[in-house]
Write a structure and sequence with these properties.
about 170 residues, alpha+beta, six-stranded mixed β-sheet, two-stranded antiparallel sheet, about 30% helix, about 25% strand
């Protein structure tokens, strides 16, 4: 495996749309949807859906830092979320839909803080996006992986125009 690849875990509401959005970005090598930073081990989608596990629907983004920077990915993430909406994105409500940036490399924190501060200047109210070390991540069932590739007309809280935007973004 190429050791130059890096990882960031992003919770942006329903993970079907968040994953599809990040897959469009040049330099993103792989995406995987799952559940992060809750207390239940190996939760099922059905369990997470009850909002009792503490997990957030999250996308594990693997990227090539020679092609795309973490800073760019984070700014793109903010394009795809309402960072002032607590536990709600689009029509989806619940703690599982909270927004968050979960990192595995502490060297990423200064970049995360920088982008967060830049994004905060665009809003009057405080951002409610979590910035935390990743504690746990459990991949969701295969059914949920690449969902919008398998179901192009499937439910998505993100407007389709955002996917085009992500494809062209540099």
């Amino acid at each position: 495996m190429d050791m130059t690849l890096k990882h960031i875990y992003l919770a942006g509401g329903c993970f079907w749309g968040t994953e599809h959005f990040f897959k469009q970005i040049d330099g993103v090598i792989e995406t995987e949807v799952g559940f992060a930073n809750g207390q239940t081990d190996n939760p099922t989608y059905e369990q997470v859906y009850t909002d009792t596990t503490g997990h957030a629907e999250t996308v594990h983004v693997t990227y090539d830092p020679n092609k795309v920077s973490l800073e760019f990915l984070l700014h793109m993430f903010f394009v795809a979320i309402d960072p002032t909406s607590l536990n709600k994105q689009g029509h989806d409500e619940g703690t599982r839909y909270r927004t968050g940036i979960y990192y595995t490399d502490s060297e990423d924190l200064p970049t995360i803080e920088k982008v967060y501060a830049e994004e905060q200047t665009k809003y009057d109210q405080p951002l409610v996006v979590e910035k935390l070390p990743l504690q746990k991540f459990y991949p969701a069932d295969e059914y949920h992986q690449d969902y919008l590739d398998k179901h192009p007309d499937g439910y998505c809280h993100l407007p389709k125009a955002l996917f085009d935007f992500a494809r062209k973004a540099k």
